[in-house]
Amino acid sequence: PKPTYRHDYRPPAYRVRHTELRFDLEPGATRVRARLHVERHPERQAGEPLVLDGEQLLLTSIAIDGQALAEAEYALSDTGLTVLRPPERFLLDTEVEISPRENTALEGLYLSNGMYCTQCEAEGFRRITYYPDRPDVMATFSTTVVGDKATLPVLLSNGNPVERGELPDGRHFVTWDDPFPKPSYLFALVAGDLQKVEDRFTTMSGRDVTLQIWVEKANLGKTDHAMASLKRAMQWDEQTYGREYDLDLFMIVAVDDFNMGAMENKGLNIFNTAAVLTHPHTATDATFQRVEGIVAHEYFHNWSGNRVTCRDWFQLSLKEGFTVFRDQCFSADVNSAPVKRIEDVAFFRTAQFAEDAGPTAHPVRPDHYIEIGNFYTLTIYEKGAEVVRMLCNLVGWEAFRRGSDLYFERFDGQAVTIEDFVDCMAEASGLDLSQFMLWYSQAGTPEIDAHGEYDYANAEYRLTLRQRTPATPDQPEKLALHIPIRMGLVGTKSGRDLALTLDGKPLDRDGVIHLREAEQTFVFTDVPEAPVPSLLRGFSAPVQLRFPYGREDLAFLLANDSDGFNRWDAGQRLAMLALDDLIAAHRNGVEKVMDPRVVEAFRALLERGSKDKAVMAEMLTLPSEAYIAEQQPLVDVEAIHAARTFVEQSLAAALSDDFLRLYEENRSDIPYAPTPEQIGQRSLKNVALSYLMAIEDEQAVALAHQQFEADHNMTDVRHALTLLVHSSRDDLADPALRAFGEKWAHEPLVMDQWFAIQVTRPQTDALERVRYLMGHPAFSLKNPNRVRALVGTFANQNRINFHRTDGEGYRLLTDVVIELNRLNPEIAARLVTPLTRWQRFDEPRQELMKGELERIRAEKLSPNVYEVIEKALA
Ligand code: HT7
Ligand code: ZN
After folding, report:
1. Which residues of the chain have pLDDT under 50?
2. Which residue in 260, 493, 706, 730 is a FRET match for 132, CA 20 to 30 A apart?
3. Interface pTM (ipTM) of the complex?
4. Would the CA dihedral through 574, 578, 583, 588 be positive or negative?
């Protein structure tokens, strides 16, 4: 497979103004007739060939302006069809046959549980019909769907239904018109035996919109939260960005088999059932919040992605980074803002930092790719969102909103670039953002080394910052970035933020300094007392910032910092210092001793309490093993696990009365609701229970068992079951697991939780359980949710067992990747990620991991897996 390069972009030679499609649905042989209204692009010469993409299609007829083409007039290949000498303006009619039944890759048109559905982003439409399958070709669509009336009573596509009727042989049809020009990746079709839940929304200009969520009958009771989330998101986008919905109908469909979370097809969003269905008995608080966020994300794409789309796939972050930023702000506004930021950053620093430090590191706007499906990454989405967040903070919200209005107005109905977006922000704010653009082109996580000195005699504080971005594949040298650092100086006597004067002027209200050089010193004057600096408040830039904090400094910030995010971060840094010592002790075979200053800091935290219980729960949560690993030069899997377990047990032993009190204070029998208050209370209670179970005293075990038996809501049941299954009490865990598995055997999404609980257990039998559970009737390699729950969770979240020194964990993952390479390349390429990080581990593990990567390389590979494996072994 050959790479595509960003610099090779050329506008298409031909445009499609309007697309008419007709689908005759049959599982093994669906006929797709397409009529494209084509014209030459005004910027391109006459007489160029028309190149259409197409894969796995059987062409049965082709005509231009009603005249069948002779074989010499076009050329067919595995990747497309070329019309050699087309006229300037014409109608192209084609007919192809495709087989949804055999489509296990879940791209294009496929069958999920007897229901037809599509996934066209990024390049799935070419598996439906011959077409210029690129985002800068935008057309209006008219789609007729024909199917068997008894088995496929519901026939959906984008836009508005304009005609329906009966046909011979028990078939029927519906025709849909989508008046908004769109690229092929936003096309969607759904057909099946579905039921709908309906609601309405009146837009800010008074238009009435019908909202529908389509599900299989058994899932009818699980749509309330998604519908409420959708209405909240529609209102938020009007109030915050002035964006109104534009069609009369907005539909969501839930499907079982789906490669990602959801898809923003115009007027017809398709969702993974896991990203839309909720019920207090089947979904946890985390799922309720995830559903709210994803429903909002897909809805927000209607403007940031659909009305204004990407010129080419290198610009993917234009829509994804901006839309993630929008959904993060929405979730922060409707829930607890500090907790949302803490959760997002904790995830980002673990997973995106790892991606940026590994062999698949790439810029937010990549320069080349082999398979675009591999670039739906944490860098494009999450780092892209951090870049937009920095832009927003740099220019300020008012200018950002003006820039956003300008962007939507200027480019409505167009396919544009990241420069177009940033130019609007520069125009609206008057700021020069040229250095800032490096954030889009340079891969890797910038590292900032900071140190500070207080000069008593002159009442000055000198802060020196040095930035460096490590080399990444293809990019050995890096330039200095423009890095906004929000900060404060917290007086050690007063415990308060000191007023900041820099270069004789008060620092702006937000307290942002701008690092632009490789090294810069900032001299703050009139500093009346010795301060502790609080740096990178709110994680104001996606960087690793190091400062030689002492433990007392961190305990001080944990107690006094006015920035909630940095209070949490001080606790994490303090725990990391203790963990580092314990990791070293474990490695050197020295007895582990718990740092009393960490215990005292936690005790003080527990005594102080917090109004926001969710924040308190985050403060009490230790850094994850994955995050700890990210902070180590070389990952010592056993030492990290042992050190973290030791800290948890030491805190539990020293503070068990406090944890017990916390647990009791936060128990509640009131009916479940996914409100921020209830979620915070449950998190705090369950964090306390985790600590208590870390030492497994009889009382803790009894509480966990009672919580499981009480069966109040899935959040509590799942947490209690996890603690039992991860404890040494198999006498209680086994019957509980059995009961849970039997009760929920008919609910695939709950069985996913049942799989995940078992395969994350630290006991040495975890790997054997994975192999055993792969034979369970509820498991299927063809369903991405099942694969993620069982195999993905094991490889990513059970570090000591996945990295077993006998290499069995790696072998298991490789076996699955090889199988999936054939069935579903997109999922295979994602699943292999943990093996690609081999350089982070000790020599024997490196050899084992590389051996497995070589084993994959020896197979006949899909472009997706090929690209990842080649990078990993480069
Ligand atoms: N824009 C959507 C991306 C997506 C996708 C990409 C590749 C393969 C399958 C996919 N399903 C959805 C989702 C989003 O970002 O909103
Ligand atoms: Zn998106």
Report:
1. none
2. 260
3. 0.98
4. positive
